[in-house]
Amino acid sequence: MIQLLFILLMIQIAFILILSFANPLRKLVVKGLDLLKQGRGPLVTKTVAATMCVVLSSTVYTITKIQKRSKDAGIVNPTDEVLMARRLLEAAFLGFSLFLGLVIDRQHYYIREINLLRKNMETAKKTKSQRLLKEMSGN
Question: Which residues contact 76 (CB under 8 A, 6 or more apart)?
Fold first, then answer.
């Protein structure tokens, strides 16, 4: 599971870097995210996020159980140390993955808003310049 979460984190980081800088892939990624947010896409992403939250809470519960067992015994078991490190890594990867998913969602939203504002500014400039040309030719 750690390998899958690591791959997921690397993919999410790549998406964030692509969305952060203007490049040819950015338009493609934005269009892909637009398509993902249509239809059943939001339902699927919310279901996956909820499942990841449940797995994260289960991992945190397991971590607290291991800590409690170590405190009750008074000595640290090497097996518990390995299990604890693995569970902490899983929890960190799950938490980072959920956070990066939110970052990607917000970046996509802001890019769409910026593009919409740019289009509105272009149309406003065109109408204003056309109006000025009409006024000048009318005088």
Answer: 70
Q: What percent of the chain has pLDDT over 70?
A: 99
User: What's the one-letter identity of residue 116?
Assistant: L
> What distances in angstroms separate CA 67 from CA 74, 78, 115, one per listed residue?
11, 13, 50
CA distance 139 to 118: 32
Q: Are 90 and 118 in contact (CB under 8 A)?
A: no
Q: Give Cα separations from 71 to 44, 64, 76, 77, 84 (angstroms).
A: 41, 10, 8, 11, 13
Residue-wise pLDDT for 41-87, tens only, equals 888 888 999 999 999 999 999 999 988 888 888 887 888 889 999 99
CB 94 within 8 A of CB 55: yes
**Mean pLDDT, all residues of the chain:** 90
